[in-house]
Design a protein that fits this description.
The chain is α+β, with helices and mostly antiparallel strands. The chain contains eleven helices and 25 strands. The strands form three sheets. It has a 16-stranded mixed beta sheet that branches. A hairpin with a 6-residue loop joins β5 and β6. This is Two-component system activity regulator YycH. InterPro entries: YycH, YycH/YycI_2. It comes from Kroppenstedtia sanguinis.
Length: 462
Amino acid sequence: MKEHLKSLALTFLVGASLLQTGILWYSSPSYQESQNVEDIPKIGHETFQKKGGYQLISPEEILVHQEGKQRRILPGKEYWALTDQLHHARLENIRSVEPSLAQWSGLMKDEPGLELRFHQDFPADVVNTFFSGNEEIDGLQYINRIWLFGEGDNNQVTIWFISDREQSVLEGTALIRDYTDWLDQETGMDGEVLHPVFPNGKSNLDKKSLRNREIPYAFYLPKESPSVDRLTFPLKKIDVNDMILILFRNPSNPKKTQVFDSTYIYMDSDSGRTLQHNKQNQTMVYNNPMNDTGGEASPSSDLATITTFMNRHNGWTGNFLLNRVEMDLNNGSNNYVFQLYMKGYPVYASKQHSGLDTIRLTARQGVSTYERSLHYFASQVEREEKDRLPAQNEVFTALKRVGSDWSDLRSIHPGYQAALKGKKMQLKPVWVVQFRNGKQGFLTASEGGDGAKWTGAEPNPS
């Protein structure tokens, strides 16, 4: 009898042990979950993580208009504090308007305000995600500028959404926390004074074009040559094996295949995920076809997905802002191209270093495409040298020399042009000149004297 009871007890203990093992196995994180939480390598610095998708679509530059003078705010501490306030603005009563000649004249000459400028035509539904409220920006397909002005009574101001492409304006009101206090503080701020140049090459508004209901646009440049440092950075490199750990559910699954002399493809046959690695150029293109499905693309959800995805592995290896949105006609998804900014200036790399200055992502159910360089700039500047940007009259002379004028231009803004110097990357300050026909050139200060010269692109707009 005792032996029988011992056998039953032993059987019970074994069974209990197996049950407990099963429960522990079931409740323990899977390899994927463990890898996601603990083992994902961190590529960039947490400084560059984004709090939300709205930070990715913040305007490339903000102009402060006061007493007929302008000052440019570029991405930096002051810029991020302001964009956070603007993000939480409450928009109301948005409707289509046709501003009068007097309204445009007053706005561009005397009215204090803020002008948020995008360097490209941004889809209105993308711009809409910059604001946190429920009011829809409906009535424009594209937006180039957002202008806020008015007395700021109770922190409520007038807001204009301007489409230079469609020659249309939407007007509403915006309630912005501490707007009046912030604008008052700006009055005493130091900063480079900018002066308008209109497409006719003059500094005054063309009243004839205003009477014809044309929306005025100005290029803002300093009359004196501004001092901007030339920067030299060492380059750092992401290990492709780290990217495999980040992007594949099971990093031991991908099969490596050489397809060209310096190009390899890693493929997970179970999920169809691939990573193409160009070893010579140190670039990568990741595709996940399982995420390339779903309903109609929504910029709000796309950007939220991208933000979460990139933050998980500190994928922003610098400060990146959305540069343009490209529609994929095959499946209706949006390709989001993000531009690198250094010291507040957008960086433009040469064709030999394609991808160093941009990151391209597509998101539907999740991120389906991730394209970037595995090289990136170190966080600390190694060398700073005195340099400058050409003054307004030097820009004008350079344009005439190449057979172009202000009417051919779409945008002109400060930036950095990247060039490899030995094993280091040098950033030289330039004016980035974008033509109406889509071409782009650079104006840099002449070495050792006055004047400006074209560099990096064909200047002729024809």
